[in-house]
């Protein structure tokens, strides 16, 4: 049913044992374990041992997200062509690899995150560490984009680019969770189109020229 | 590789945007009509040519920004000169050369989904950007072990968008093509079916192999080899064929002999398909053919294949026989069979439509009535378009309660219009062949 093993070799230490057992539990029961005590007992470790890795199930869920992110980056960079990608292509490649990685956890993710109202109320807290890592990655892409003129630096707005890309990431996640098309083709299209939109907006647009022109008129009065 | 900021800058991104594109065009076209009638009040002799020309500009500008089925419909309409007034024609012919590319990461993703491997793992080299755009996909050039391949990759979600795109085109086509709603529905179904088939690349590979094998005996005709192991629902791998497109070839001023040779190969290709295989490559627009060194015609796209039902075949081609016009009772039977007239028509309507169809048929069948036909004869084509134009504006047709002509006829007519039009561009002199039962 579920393929938790990744193609990447991972060390089977206690940390991964915990996350894997947690995913397994959610898959089989459709919900989180009732208590850390019960859970630790189930996998044959003492409760205090659990706490030396994670402080709560929230941390474990965060760990799953981190794992997906790390594997995505590893898989993506393993492709020789990746080094020659432009900023736009790097972001596209990230999302495509990411949803492919998430596919291995789809049932788990659906059980925990498929809600009709989406994340509008609040982003699940366990996404925080994933967010920090993603934004570091996004900033690299943005820097490359700026260096190659695909992205324009704008006062005040530039700082928000990484936040905007994070919002896009959440959008893609929810789109994918709800996607029922054959081999998630619609998500592919959503990624392609939303990344293009993001880069078109971040690149030089008519608005920049308008602002520039308005500034000129104002200053030369 | 240098960064390419220009890729994918101009496709309307969502369905809403695509719809608004159409609405925008509709409004512009409406404006053109108003302009036309305003001018006409001042100058009553003004013809509709100018109006059609400005409409064509606006429609084309809008359609060329859309991909997938909308573009397909544009191409289809451009082929069927019978449906489309003369001025629209040229503009639409250009549609096949537009459509912006897919990003390379998505191409990689399609490969991984289909074969579980990246293009680099399957080929020695693979171009990261498309070398050619097709209406529902794009072509990359690849090499392996010294052989060169053309790899066609389909845009994601095309199959899903076919039906919704056609719904968007519908009201628009209805207003602009002078077709009535009944007629349009009648044909849209057939078009939708064909478009959905075109999105199935596995089927295309199967049919390409079938037809190219069955036609391999025809002289001066060439087909690429297909590689089913490197093809999937979304990807087709075939031999890369060197050559130039028809339009470029014609610019090099080929001799009459060379043009006849290409034209003859084309004619025989269609003759064999229609009369022997009863399965026809129903998409004869110039972009699907290339001319190779040594004056050979290569067929590179088998997206649209129409299977001709036996009952339709006999009725349709019996009408093209030279002497068929003499026998009134027989003609009546055939017209009914081909759904040109029906019992719902009044006697007066029957007489009227029969006269028009007779005229159309004798004109269309003209190349079949002699053993040689000169397709450089512009007078013949002017006659053909003039008739099409007249029919499309005809009040009796527009107000008719039902669709005229079998739906199978849609693609067969389109095939013949396309074939004739290419032969006309080639200015070729053809030894026309007819099946034995025709004589």
In short:
The complex is a heterodimer of chains A (221) and B (439). Chain A contains 10 helices and no strands.
Can you tell me about this structure?
Chain A: This is TetR/AcrR family transcriptional regulator. The complex is a heterodimer of chains A (221) and B (439). Chain A has a single domain (61-219), classed as Orthogonal Bundle (Tetracycline Repressor, domain 2). The longest helix of chain A has 22 residues, at 57-78. Chain A has 221 residues and is mainly alpha-helical. Helix content of chain A is 66%, strand content 0%. Chain A has ten helices and no strands. In chain B, helix 2 runs parallel beside helix 4 (86-93), helix 3 (69-79) crosses helix 4 and helix 14 packs antiparallel against helix 16. Chain B has helices at residues 15-42, 49-63, 69-79, 86-93, 104-115, 119-122, 158-176, 181-198, 201-214, 246-251, 256-277, 310-319, 328-337, 347-364, 366-369, 378-393, 395-398, 407-426, and strands at 125-126, 132-133, 137-144, 147-154, 221-222, 235-239, 244-245, 279-281, 289-292, 296-299, 305-307, 372-374, 429-431. With 439 residues, chain B is an alpha+beta fold. Residues 1-31, 63-69 and 78-99 of chain B have low confidence and may be disordered. Chain B is built from 18 helices and 13 strands. Chain B has a domain at 242-439. Chain A binds chain B through residues 79-81, 84-89, 92-93, 96, 100, 148-150, 181, 183, 185-186, 188-189, 191-197, 199-200, 203, and chain B through 1, 3-5, 7-9, 11, 13-14, 102-106, 108-109, 112-113, 118, 120, 128, 156-157, 160.
- What is the terminal-to-terminal distance of chain A? 70 Å
How many strands, what sense, and barrel or not for the largest sheet of chain A?
none
Overall pLDDT score of chain B: 74
Helix-strand makeup class of chain B: alpha+beta
Query: What gap, in angstroms, lies between the N and C termini of chain B?
Result: 62 Å
Level of helix content of chain A? 55-70%
Structural class of chain A: mainly alpha
Beta content of chain A comes to under 5%
Overall helicity of chain B: 40-55%
- Radius of gyration of chain A (Å): 21 Å
The level 1 CATH classification of chain A is Mainly Alpha
Overall body shape of chain A: elongated
Which fold name is given in CATH as the topology of chain A? Answer: Tetracycline Repressor, domain 2
Q: Which consecutive residue ranges of chain A, at least 5 long each, have pLDDT under 50?
A: 1-11
Give the second-level CATH assignment, the architecture of chain A.
Orthogonal Bundle
- Largest interface, counted by CB within 8 Å of the partner chain's CB: A-B, 32 and 25 residues
**Oligomeric category:** heterodimer
Largest sheet of chain B: 5 strands, antiparallel
Give Rg of chain B in angstroms.
Answer: 23 Å
What is the mean predicted local confidence, pLDDT of chain A?
86
User: Any low-confidence stretches of chain B, pLDDT <50, length ≥5?
Assistant: 1-31, 63-69, 78-99
Keywords (chain B): Transferase
GO molecular function (chain B): ATP binding; protein kinase activity
Domain Protein kinase (chain B): 125-439
Organism (chain B): Pontibacter burrus
């Amino acid at each position: 049913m579920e393929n938790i093993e990744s193609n990447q070799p991972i060390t089977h230490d206690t940390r991964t044992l915990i996350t894997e057992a947690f995913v397994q539990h959610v898959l089989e029961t459709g919900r989180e374990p009732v208590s850390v005590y019960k859970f630790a007992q189930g996998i044959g470790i003492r409760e205090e041992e659990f706490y030396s890795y994670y402080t709560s199930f929230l941390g474990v869920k965060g760990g799953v997200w981190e794992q997906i992110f790390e594997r995505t980056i590893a898989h993506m960079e393993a492709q020789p062509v990746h080094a020659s990608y432009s900023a736009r292509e790097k972001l596209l490649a990230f999302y495509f690899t990411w949803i492919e990685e998430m596919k291995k956890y789809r049932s788990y993710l659906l059980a925990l995150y498929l809600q009709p109202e989406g994340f509008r109320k609040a982003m699940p807290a366990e996404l925080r560490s994933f967010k920090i890592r993603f934004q570091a990655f996004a900033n690299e892409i943005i820097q490359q984009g700026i260096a190659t003129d695909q992205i324009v630096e704008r006062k005040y707005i530039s700082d928000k680019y990484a936040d905007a890309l994070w919002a896009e990431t959440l959008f893609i996640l929810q789109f994918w969770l709800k996607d029922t098309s054959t081999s998630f083709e619609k998500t592919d299209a959503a990624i392609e189109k939303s990344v293009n939109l993001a880069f078109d907006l971040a690149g030089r647009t008519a608005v920049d020229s308008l602002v520039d022109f308005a500034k000129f008129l104002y200053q030369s009065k | 590789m240098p960064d390419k900021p220009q890729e994918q800058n101009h496709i309307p991104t969502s369905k809403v945007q695509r719809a608004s594109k159409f609405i925008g065009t509709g409004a512009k076209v409406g404006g053109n009509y108003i302009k036309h009638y305003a001018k006409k009040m001042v100058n009553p002799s003004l013809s509709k040519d100018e109006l059609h020309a400005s409409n064509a500009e606006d429609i084309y500008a809008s359609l060329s920004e859309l991909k997938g089925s909308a573009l397909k419909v544009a191409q289809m309409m451009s082929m069927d000169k019978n449906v489309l007034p003369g001025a629209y024609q040229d503009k639409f012919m250009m549609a096949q050369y537009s459509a912006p590319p897919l990003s390379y990461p998505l191409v990689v993703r399609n490969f991984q989904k289909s074969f579980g491997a990246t293009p680099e793992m399957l080929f020695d080299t693979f171009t990261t950007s498309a070398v050619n755009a097709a209406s529902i996909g794009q072509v990359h050039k690849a090499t392996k072990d010294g052989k060169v391949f053309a790899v066609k990759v389909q845009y994601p979600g095309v199959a899903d968008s076919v039906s919704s795109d056609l719904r968007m085109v519908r009201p628009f086509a209805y207003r602009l093509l002078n077709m009535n709603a009944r007629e349009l529905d009648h044909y849209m179904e057939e078009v939708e079916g064909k478009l959905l088939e075109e999105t199935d690349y596995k089927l295309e590979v199967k049919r390409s192999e079938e037809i190219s094998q069955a036609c391999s005996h025809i002289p001066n005709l060439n087909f690429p080899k297909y590689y089913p192991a490197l093809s999937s629902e979304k990807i087709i791998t075939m031999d890369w064929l060197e050559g130039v497109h028809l339009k470029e070839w014609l610019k090099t001023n080929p001799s009459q002999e060379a043009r006849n040779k290409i034209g003859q190969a084309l004619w025989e290709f269609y003759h064999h398909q229609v009369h022997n295989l009863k399965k026809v490559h129903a998409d004869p627009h110039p972009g699907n053919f290339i001319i190779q060194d040594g004056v050979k015609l290569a067929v590179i796209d088998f997206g649209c294949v129409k299977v001709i039902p036996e009952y339709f075949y006999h009725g349709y081609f019996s009408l093209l026989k030279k002497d068929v016009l003499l026998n009134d009772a027989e003609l009546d039977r055939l017209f009914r069979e081909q759904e040109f007239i029906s019992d719902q028509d009044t006697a007066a309507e029957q007489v009227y439509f029969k006269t028009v169809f007779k005229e159309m048929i004798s004109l269309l069948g003209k190349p079949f009535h002699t053993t040689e036909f000169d397709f450089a004869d512009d007078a013949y084509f002017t006659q053909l378009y003039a008739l099409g134009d007249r029919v499309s504006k005809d009040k009796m047709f527009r107000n008719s309660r039902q669709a005229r002509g079998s739906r199978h006829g849609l693609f067969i007519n389109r095939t013949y219009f396309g074939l004739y039009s290419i032969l006309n561009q080639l200015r070729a002199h053809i030894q026309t062949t007819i099946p034995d039962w025709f004589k």
